[in-house]
Amino acid sequence: MLGGVVLPVTTGAALGVQALTFREGDVTFTRLGAASVQSAGGFDYLRAQFEVKNVGTTPFDNLTLVAVARQGNVGGTPIKAITDFGGVPSRDQAALAPLVAPTPAVAVAPGGALSLVPDAADFVALPDAEVTALTGQSGWNTFYGPQDTPLNYGFTVSRCSAAACTRTLKPGESGTVNVALRVPKGTAVGAAYGFLMNFALVNDPVTRVTRSVVPPESAAAAAARLDALGAPGGEVMQLEPTAQALPAGRTGRAVPSVRLSRDGADLLTALTTVQTTPLGAVNLALNPDDRTVTQDSSGALEFTPGVFTDVDDVQGGVRYVTRTFEVRNVSGRTLPNVTLRAIARPGNLGGTAVVEVRGAPTGSEPQGPQITDPAFAQAFRPVHRTVLGSNSPEIDLSGASFQAYRAVESQALQARAGLGADVTVLDYGFTVGGAGTRMLTPGEVTRINVAYRFPRRFGTQPRPFAMTLSFVAVTEDGVRVSQAVGESRAQLVDRAQGLLGTAPVVQVNATDGTDLPASNVTGLLPMITPGVRVGTQTGLRP
Known about the structure:
It is a single chain. By secondary structure, the protein is mostly beta strands. It is 11% helix and 41% strand. Strands 22, 27, 28, 29, 33, 34 and 37 form a seven-stranded antiparallel β-sheet that branches. It is elongated, with a radius of gyration of 26 Å. The protein starts with a strand and ends in a 14-residue tail after the last strand.
C-alpha cells in the first residue's frame, strides 16, 4: 500500500489543471476533463479519466486504485459527497449506490450495443485475501480507521502508445487510469453526476486482466489483452460463476464474488438486477369462453385471448391451466422485454394476484358460482405453459413465459409504478417471446403464456373453471430466463443459450436451491432466486 486518494467522478466542466491535480506520495493524479456519460437500456455508463504521473525515483508496476468503503459513505460503498446522481433524489441514493457496478471502459453504439475499449479496460477484480491483508500493513492506519473496508476491486494504471500498452510507470512517466461505472437510472433521469470515490493506492506485483461479463468477453479474448501487455507471469481474473478454461500457457484465478459495499452488495447481483419501467395495470381472464380484447391502463399494449390449455395430472393431483394471449404494441415506441408482473390488490383473494375464481357453469349460474375461499387462490402456483405429453403433462419450453424476481426488484417496481400504497408487487410474472426476440416494435404482435397449476380438488367446493388475475405491464432492460416448477437446470441453461442469438447477455435464474447454475458459456449470467413470493401471506412460494 502506497497511500490513499479521493477522486472526483463528475460531469462538471474542468476548473483548471491546478484545482484538478491531487498528489499522494510519489504520485499525482490530474483529472482529464469532465466524466463522460453514455446510456443504454436502463443504465448510464460513466467514465472518469485521470493522468497518473510518477513524480518519485522508483518505478511502479500495476499501480492500482483499490476501492475503499469508508465509514459514513453512501450505502456502505466507496461513494461519498454526492451532489448529482443522474437526477436520482437524495432519499433514493443510499439504496441505489450498492448497485453501482465497476466496469471496464465501454463504448455504446447508436443501437445500444456495448463494446470494450481495450486500451481503457482498467477494471480489475482482486483476490479477497490479498485485499483484506492491506488492513494489516503499517500504512493502512495512517489513512483509514477500523471501520473502513477495502473492497476486492479497483482500476489499474496503464501507459499506452500507438504500439502497445504497459503497466510499468518509470520515474517521470505518466499513464492513465479509467474509473468506469455502470449506474442504474432512477425515477428521475438526468445526465449530471458529481460525487467522490475513496481508493487505496497500491503497487500490485502481479499483472492482471479481468475478463468482462458485461459486455461479454471470452476467456481467450481476455488472455489476448493480457498478452498484449507483454508481462510474463500475469493472471486472467474471472468471476467464478462464469469462469472459462484459458488458452494453453495462460494462468488465471477465479474470484468467488466482487464486493461492492461493506454491507454485502456484490457485482453479480448488481449486474443481474433488472431495471423495470412500468406501463399500466391490466386484469386478464383465464377463461375458455372469454374473448375480450383488453388494453393496459397506459394504452401501450393490447391483449387478445388465444388458445386455452387445460391439462389434468390425475396421479399428481394437480391441474395445469394456460391462456395464451396475443400481445400487440399499440404505442409509438419499441418496447423491450414486455412482462406482466403479478400484483396483489385490495380485494384480491388471499393476498394473491387472483381477483376472482368461478366454478364450472350451471343452469342457474351460467357464469359459474363465485368461489370466495382464499385457500383457492393461495393454492395457485405460476408455471410455464404445460401440455399433455405422451404419458403425462410436460412443459412446453418453446412457450416458457414464467419469470422470477428478487424481492428488491419487486420493491423498486412498487415504488415506481404508482399503483398505490396498498398494492403489492409479487416476485413473479410472465414474459413475452418464448424462444424468440423480446423486442416489440410499434404494431408488432407476439405471445405471452399466463400459466398456473393448482390442486384438482378443493374439498367439496366447485372445480375452478375461470380465473381473473391482476398484473402491471412493464418493460425491462435485460433478458432473463427463470426456472419454473418441473424444469431442470439443464433445460433452463438450454433456453438461455437459445436466446444468445437475440441478446448478447442472458440472465439464467435458478429458483430451486442456493447454488448457482453451472455454465461457462460467454454471455450467460447465473443468478439464484430461491424465495419467490406468489402472495403476501407468509410461506406462499412456488
